[in-house]
Amino acid sequence: MRVAAGQFRELTQEDLAFARQIGCAGVTINKPDFDSQAWTGFLGKQFTAASGPRAPTRRFSALELATLRSAVEAHGLVLECIEGVPRNLLDRVMLGLPGAEEQVEDFKATIRAMGQAGIPVLGYNWIPDGVWRTTKADHGRGGALVTGYDDRLGQSIATGTLPPRDEQAMWANWERFIEAVLPVAEGAGVKLSLHPDDPPVPELDGVARIFRDEAALGRALAFADSPNHGLAFCTGTLAQRSADGMMHALGRFARAGRIHYVHLRSVAGALPRFTEAFIDEGKVDAVAVLETLAEAGFDGFVIDDHVPHVVGDTVWGHRSRAYATGYIAGIIRALERTKGRMG
Ligand SMILES: [Mn+2]
């Protein structure tokens, strides 16, 4: 088990140096938009107006991914994972809209490119309108800014941008998707890792959120029962329903060897209303989480997630992430030492 730095949507050489400086062995990249000005600059490509706005389909090329991997490795880091493609490159598949087939073909090509570039894990989720919060400026400990969600407000919002989809439709679309892409992942030696729906409520904006609890995740793992399909286990998302339920799911899926990586964050409160919290407070017991993973023999990586915004911090959250990452690394070290003493 090891700690990584994650959720870079854009990347600079400084960010990579920072990840190494705070002791991470690896990094993850979030939904990279390789056609954006920031990414074309990082990858040493010419940005042209033709690069954006982005078409509804897009495959990541092996060359882009290899360039990215090399840049990461130049800092003594491992590129552990790409956490998803931009949402609008998979939305037609999730919603079963015209153009879904083309998006699936691009996703398959992306998996093959990941395999060629030697990047072992591709995270994904099944939420076409993304993570919802009803505030981004609630006050946490010491006045730190934290995000929050109130389902009474959430349920009153209808964007009118998505076609309504019930549970049955979202499951059917997912089953069709995973049946199409999993054999490609197995052939390419790439792991696909499902992140639960955040917030984990039955429906938002007229679209069912199917991956919201242990039962649904268990069903997904049984349906796509392969070492190349597992979970991006997010402690915060599941604890937003129930911290006890999250711990139960964690133990079960860790012992089954189906957790590829972990988002470790905490929350205060639970649905219908919660706020995010520092890693050392709130409903999620980070020590218990890491202890459960260690006992199950988990050998993947753990990253922080949605850290509170502290005094003087950057948008990405260098200060807050350094704190959370150090906290995780310290617990892992302590658990290793205890295990060594117990023989
Ligand atoms: Mn997460």
Structure notes:
The protein is of the alpha/beta class and 343 residues long. The protein has one domain (2-342): TIM Barrel, CATH 3.20.20.150. The protein is built from twelve helices and 14 strands. The protein has an eight-stranded parallel beta barrel, surrounded by five helices. Strands 5-6-13-12 form a four-stranded antiparallel beta sheet. The protein has a two-stranded antiparallel sheet with strand order 8-9. α3 packs across α5. It is globular. The two termini are 18 Å apart. 42% of the residues are buried. Residues 195, 234, 236-237, 263, 305 line the site of manganese (II) ion (MN).
In brief, what are we looking at here?
The protein is of the alpha/beta class and 343 residues long.
Write the layout of secondary structure elements.
Blueprint: E1 2-8, H1 13-21, E2 26-30, H2 37-42, H3 62-73, E3 78-83, H4 91-95, H5 100-117, E4 121-125, E5 135-139, E6 145-150, H6 151-154, H7 167-188, E7 191-195, E8 203-204, E9 207-208, H8 214-223, E10 229-234, H9 235-239, H10 243-255, E11 259-263, E12 266-270, E13 273-277, H11 286-295, E14 301-303, H12 318-342
Parallel strand pairs: 1-2, 1-14, 2-3, 3-4, 4-7, 7-10, 10-11, 11-14
Antiparallel strand pairs: 5-6, 6-13, 8-9, 12-13
